[in-house]
From TrEMBL:
Record EC number: 3.4.16.4
First-level EC class: hydrolase
Keyword Hydrolase attached: yes
UniProt superkingdom: Bacteria
UniProt-recorded name of the protein: D-alanyl-D-alanine carboxypeptidase
One annotated GO molecular function: serine-type D-Ala-D-Ala carboxypeptidase activity
Annotated Pfam families: Peptidase_S13
InterPro entries, sorted: Beta-lactam/transpept-like, Peptidase_S13
Family recorded in the similarity comment: Belongs to the peptidase S13 family.
Keyword Hydrolase belongs to the record: yes
Gene3D superfamilies: DD-peptidase/beta-lactamase superfamily
Amino acid sequence: MKNLLYILLVTLTFTACRSSRALLTKQLDNKLSTPFYKNQFTGILVIDAETKDTIYDRESDKYFIPASNTKIFTLYTAIKTIPDHIPALKYIESNDTLYFEGTGDPSFLHPYLRDSTAFTFLKSKTNLVYVTDNFQDKKYGPGWAWDDYQWYYSPEKNALPIYGNVVMINTNQGIQVTPPYFKDSVLNMNHTDQRKETSNLFFYPTQGRDTLEIPFITSTVTTRSILENTLNQKITTRPGMPKGTKKTLRGINADSLYIRMMHESDNFIAEQLLILTASELKDTLSGAMARTYILENQLADLVQSPRWVDGSGLSRYNLFTPQNMVEVLNKLYIDLPRERLYTIFPAGGLSGTLKNRFAGNQKPYIYAKSGSLSNTYCLSGYLITNSGKTLIFSVMNNHFRNSTSDERTHLEAMLQMLRDHY
């Protein structure tokens, strides 16, 4: 009799779940059949994080431009290769001389991260030689917009970033410029641009009150000059390390970089994390090498092979599927403790780029990364339902003519359906 009751209970539970899922599928299908979604491309995949059952699938094997959802792949790559404390510098000490090279560490005197590990280390030495030939990448990613050179979200990549590779200008007490090396290169005048395209000449409006962050043009000469000005000592350069075993100076906690990248959608940190990954794999600093390595190893089992060209998602050449996103999110869900995972991702209604959207009633129900370009909005991450289940989801919208705000509003309604009915 007990066995019969158990079988009956299991059957009823299974039937109820199947019925609930069928109703949810119908609701989502109806939502996506409205005129709002008629002239855009939308792909969705939702799975149960524990059972791995597919809850909803719409065009999830199709390729979409991911925008900053690309940073989910960058995050996974960094977590699988970079130690808890990132490599700030690599160096060899010979007699009284310190030979050092960059690793791509973006935190060196970064205006928000404010890490001084490398600065303090170099400041304690006297004869400094900066080794310059390990960077085998380009300043910009393929497909980046050429006219973004002057905007805060598009700093150049290099082996030894300093001050985030941007000039900070404000008027707290007169015009303040960081790094101070550029103080004579800032003109207090109204101009159509913030910086000359081909030189490090910057413009701050006469009635300016905001703090401007303007990328500067990087080069070996510029990096050395900023270092000399900051350390207040002479630095020489050379193309290769002397013979010997390199040592690694460990710097800032890696999670502080991951949180900044994911919460603020920081493109610069995303790009430099791939450079840092390369520094852990070989002596050559190349984002392409880092991407190839992770795709051929830890991500060799992806059902579709993505086209992945940068770390940040600035490029429209990137092509990923919702299945790609869910597969990597699932790997992160398996590998990381929940508290750490949900700290790294922005929380709906609470933090980062989701602070003003996707709020829960009493606590967050969404932990996810958004991605926006013109005519593109994507959101991928984790959803906690009212019943206590965890869903892994990816929603990718391309080629819409509506406002991004309207896209988010319609997406929020669908996510609330999942929260309330699964």
